[in-house]
């Protein structure tokens, strides 16, 4: 969040804007402290029902979508931390490589080497299957029940969503965060990430700096 | 069929249905409730929502429509199967949630036109993605969990 704010201030004169979307069933209550700390001048939106992950078929956070002046998706990267905190040392590392790619795009637009071909962008966005659609309605119903104060009954619907889409980390991490993963789901994030990796490495060409 | 009130979430619209007919996972609505909660209505051309109509499935209209006295009931769950719409139902709280068929979702993503949305910020001000046409946008999803 603070890195996005800095980048936005740096690039705003290049016809570039940042929109952050915080996805949390608990909404502003869960997000306010993070947003206030970053003090954004760009739109910083609250998505209680995970609408943006649904529309863009994303499966993890943080995810970044590049949208050009015509409203066309030109790049999609899932699981990209601009800044990451080392759990042991507390140190922050910034993914300069990704920031430089965004700077390159802000400067060159469609001529940037980081803009994906239509085929590659379509492949990264993935075709939603019947299971995605089914998982989504169960997840949404679970989220609705939590918001209505029925967290216990939400578990069964979150479980169905997880069974249909085990690789969707948004649905898992959000549900685990709302309760006790071991009691409610018989698992932990650690166990889950041992079964399948939660992050794929950044797939981006190493281009000379702009 | 026991009569309970129901909460229906159809796409983005939420409606309290005072007198539905409920049969297991099946939700039956009166034609008046059908149009007010989903926008679908029965016309000569078939089942229509705005300009878009689908024909009543031949030989299967019994599973969709049921006449009882002066009322005609419509089986929204069976219609969702016909449209390949995903449905989730919570019996305890009598909630039905009908989503979008995967085909519509696929077509939209394949076009690469960024799907539009309107969401609030912390101050409750609404922002719509398409208002930023003409500008390069980095859309970044994050979460506190």
How would the blueprint of this fold be written?
The complex is a heterodimer of chains A (210) and B (145).
Chain A: H1 2-11, E1 16-23, H2 28-38, E2 44-47, H3 51-56, E3 63-67, E4 73-78, E5 83-85, E6 92-94, H4 96-108, H5 118-125, H6 130-147, H7 151-164, H8 169-178, H9 181-185, H10 189-195
Chain B: E1 6-10, E2 13-17, E3 21-23, E4 26-30, H1 31-38, E5 41-43, E6 46-49, E7 52-54, H2 61-64, E8 65-68, E9 71-75, H3 76-83, E10 87-90, E11 95-98, H4 102-110, E12 118-120, E13 126-128, E14 136-142
Descriptive report:
The complex is a heterodimer of chains A (210) and B (145). Chain A is of the alpha+beta class and 210 residues long. Chain A is 49% helix and 14% strand. Chain A is built from ten helices and six strands. In chain A, the strands form three sheets. In chain A, strands 1-2 form a two-stranded parallel ribbon. The termini of chain B are far apart. The interface between A and B is large, with 79 and 47 residues. Strand 1 (16-23) of chain A pairs parallel with strand 14 of chain B, so a sheet runs across the interface.
